Amino acid sequence: MSTDVTIVPSSVQGTVRAPPSKSYTHRAILAAGYAGDTTVRDALWSADTQATARAVTAFGGALERRDDGTLEVEGFDGRPEVPTDVIDCGNSGTTIRLVSGAAALADGTTVLTGDESLRSRPQGPLLEAITDLGGEATSTRENGQAPLVVTGPLAGGSVSIPGDVSSQFITSLLMAGAVTDQGIEIDLETALKSAPYVDITLEVLEAFGVDARQTDTGFAVEGGQSYDPVGGEYAVPGDFSSISYPLAAGAIAGEDGVRIEGAHPSAQGDTAIVEIVERMGADVDWDRGAGTVDVTAALLEGITVDVEDTPDLLPTIATLGAVADGETRITNAEHVRYKETDRVSAMAEELGTMGVETTEEHDSLTIHGDESRLEGATVSGRDDHRIIMALALAGLVADGETTVEGADHVDVSYPGFFSSLEELGVDLERQESG
Fold first, then answer.
1. What is the pTM of this model?
2. Is residue 97 part of an annotated ligand binding site?
3. Do residue 64 and residue 178 come from a single domain?
4. Which residues form the active site (predicted)?
5. In 3D, which of 231, 230, 178, 182 has the Cα closest to residue 202?
């Protein structure tokens, strides 16, 4: 059974709290696994982050979630055990990539897989890097995609890897490299896409007492280090990828204003959404000290946005463009095609179902706001949390009701998304479907 959600055109107002960052939570849970005993506060407990928690347990750690959401993690102290079973990463690309590095440290073989979507996502460069560093890493189908078979242990060393497929490959190697004998030095063969996500990794590693750094040609981490956060605790900041949805809701349907709490500054590239919404014409005030963003709707104008470093924002920007006057052009977007679904095509096709004119190219998406009128329709969420949430936003201002199929997949990153919309005054209805 899945859930469809029907959204009635609605205005929004009020206050909503941002969920914790999925990107930081993944890294914090795995870093706590590399450590001894750690308390992780304010963690996002979603389908994806639970997959990372299961992996930590599979490597010999233990994790308990308390009633207040705090995670108590007993780590494997930098020495992961060989799992007794296959690690199922579900739909989480972050999980399978980050824990592949941990698997390469185990003295034996680990098998990692996931759902159909995950098994179509590229892993090849990371497998090659692990092999170049002295481990063994293969794809069972010899296509660079899961299921993956990873055998360790690797000692570390130098490796070259492309930077334009996934920044998660670099994160995986840096996190594992800290507990190798030799450390790992990474030379980037191509420019790094989604660079802020590696900044997040460096920030989390520093909080856990691990020294990693950017070099002239890539990144490096010394070996023989220990994961040991100050006071044995780490607190996860709010998630700007998730903040983009209530922020956009306020920009298109918040005539009386929306306040978002939990928006404290961090290394997240997706903080760019605040500037993007402001550039398009909404009234936005970010109080960085208080961690609040206030947004009020206004007439929006199309702009050009480069998403090289902020791929997760494409669906949100596409919906904003459907509401705005003029053209909204989203560029440097090729890597957005390799997410839970091809998000470039998904947004073009589903917005098209709602009457929006778009031009899709290999690495860009242009939304022709002047030539479009948003009309309520039944659209597919594509089993992709970000597509679902972006289409739900479009439903706020469409002409007529909009039904988003398979809406329960928001659990991947923002389990309370539709409840948050209801708190802001949105009229919606959930229906069970086969």
1. 0.86
2. no
3. yes
4. 312
5. 178
